[in-house]
Amino acid sequence: MTRTILIVEDNAQNRLLLRDILIFHGYQVLEAENGDEGVRLAKTAKPDLMLLDIQMPVMDGITAATLLKNDPATVQVKLIALTSFAMKSDRERIMAAGFDDYITKPIDTRKLPLLIRRHLLTGKNHLNDANRCDRS
């Protein structure tokens, strides 16, 4: 069974990079340019996982995650934040919004597929701070 991943990212080059990585690894890919579009698409397409940028026009990733986690139709979707924020307080704010994990930009293209696979296979976050995929 092919898993579906929804990329919600306002930067077209970042979407292209993510799409190419995900297709290479055998995922079906959907795309949205902002949080509002991403929330609407998630409700209709029911993706297995979403890669959700934090800073976007129209609706930011934190607001989108809150809406998704408070809606019975999308509460089960795994959310991974894409962010340039790397401070501890940013990490806490992101995780408190309902994200299952996060990865910082620039994205490590070797670690991203591993992070996604872990969440899709287990349905749980097996990463601890020492193994978090946003660190080298």
Task: Characterise this structure.
The structure is a single chain. The protein has about 140 residues and is of the alpha/beta class. It has one domain (about 5-120): Response regulator (Rossmann fold), CATH 3.40.50.2300. Helix content is about 40%, strand content about 20%. It is built from 5 helices and 5 strands. The chain has helices spanning about 10-25, 35-45, 60-70, 90-95, 110-120, and strands at about 5-10, 30, 50-55, 80-85, 100-105. A 5-stranded parallel β-sheet has the order 2-1-3-4-5, sandwiched between helices. β1, α1 (about 10-25) and β2 form a beta-alpha-beta unit. α2 runs parallel beside α3 (about 60-70). Residues about 125-135 have low confidence and may be disordered.
In short:
The protein is of the alpha/beta class and 136 residues long. It has helices at 12-24, 35-45, 61-69, 88-96, 111-122, and strands spanning 4-8, 28-32, 49-53, 78-83, 101-104. The protein has a single domain, classed as Rossmann fold.
Keywords:
136 residues, Rossmann fold, 40% helix, 18% strand
